[in-house]
Structures are given as structure tokens and as C-alpha cells.
Amino acid sequence: MIRYLKKGAEAAETAEYDRKVRQTVEGILADVEARGDAAVRELSQKFDKWSPESFRLSGAEIQALIDSLPAQVIEDIKFAQSQIRRFAEVQRASMQDVEVETLPGVTLGHKHIPVESVGCYIPGGRYPMVASAHMSVLTAKVAGVPRVIACTPPLNGRGAGRDGGRHAHGRGG
């Protein structure tokens, strides 16, 4: 006889949960669309207990974070980035543009064109996923995306480079 240790929610319960999540997210998006940065600031304070003067790190803050790292960490980051960049370059090289004239005056083909802008989310919290910063930002840059933005949540109400925060917000580049 089968003994279940854990069972999933019933379909109706799952549908109701999904409806509530969708309603919450739609409300948040509408608020941000209507009120912009003011809504983002309120949400950051509410969910993250963080309301910095600017959500974007300055060049000086980024440099201070880099300077605070031990030399071995910098070397490890450079090694990881070189490996990830090299593989992304091989991947990009494998995606060839194609153009062929199938009949006189009829040209068919495809071309790989990067998107204009990419937003990269780097998971933070209890188990930060630093490697996702390298894999998402570097891959987008190798693909030729001109504008790459990265973000990560604050930790315990403290952002990177502010009040002793311990993890860095990414930057495009």
C-alpha cells in the first residue's frame, strides 16, 4: 500500500493561488507604471527594508567594492569570467548568419541580431548565486547587447557598498 508523505495541492487550490499571485503582480506592475520610482522605493522599503538615495551604484561605490576584495577573489573572478567568455564566444561563433539566392532575385536567410537591452537578475539572499552574474552579463555582452543592466536584492536591508553590504550589485559592462 502506498503511503504519501506529501501531496500536492488540488487543482482548484492551485488555480486560486495562481490567481492571487497574478493579481498581486499585476497590482505591483500597475503601481510602478503609474508612479514610477516612488512606487519602486515604497516596494523596496516594504519588502527589502531598504531605501537608498539611489538604487544605482556609483562608479566610486563599485570601485570601493572591488578594492575590498582579497586578491585571490579577484583572480578567481577573472578566471571564471575568462572561461565563461570563451565558451560564450564559441557559442556565438556557432550561430552563423545565412543568406542564399534560391531563385534569381529571391534571397532567403536569417541573421542573428542582439536585442538592444537586457536586464540580468542575480539571485541574492541566503544563498547568493554569484556565478549567474558572470553567466548572464558576460553572455549578453559577447552576444553584442549594447545595454546590459544587472541587479540583486539587498541583504538584511543593506545594499552593496552601502552600510557595509556584502554583495555587489552588477553593472553592465
Textual characterization of the structure:
The protein is α+β, with helices and mostly antiparallel strands. Helix content is 48%, strand content 12%. The chain has helices at 11-35, 37-48, 59-67, 71-93, 130-143; strands at residues 98-103, 106-110, 117-121, 147-151. The strands form two sheets. It has a two-stranded antiparallel ribbon with strand order 1-2. A two-stranded parallel sheet has the order 3-4. Strand 3, helix 5 (130-143) and strand 4 (147-151) form a beta-alpha-beta unit. The longest helix has 25 residues, at 11-35. The radius of gyration is 22 Å and the shape is extended. Residues 161-173 have low confidence and may be disordered.
Describe this structure in a few short sentences:
The chain is of the alpha+beta class. It contains five helices and four strands, in the order H-H-H-H-E-E-E-H-E.
DSSP strand tally = 4
Residue fraction in strands: 5-15%
Rounded to the nearest angstrom, the radius of gyration is: 22 Å
Oligomer: single chain
Helix-residue proportion: 40-55%
What is the mean pLDDT?
A: 87
Distance between the termini: 58 Å
Total count of helical runs of at least 4 residues: 5
Strands of the biggest beta sheet: in what spatial order? 1-2
Shape label: extended
Structural class: alpha+beta
Give, in order, the helices and strands. Answer: HHHHEEEHE
Q: Enumerate the spans where pLDDT stays under 50 for 5 or more consecutive residues.
A: 161-173
Largest sheet: 2 strands, antiparallel
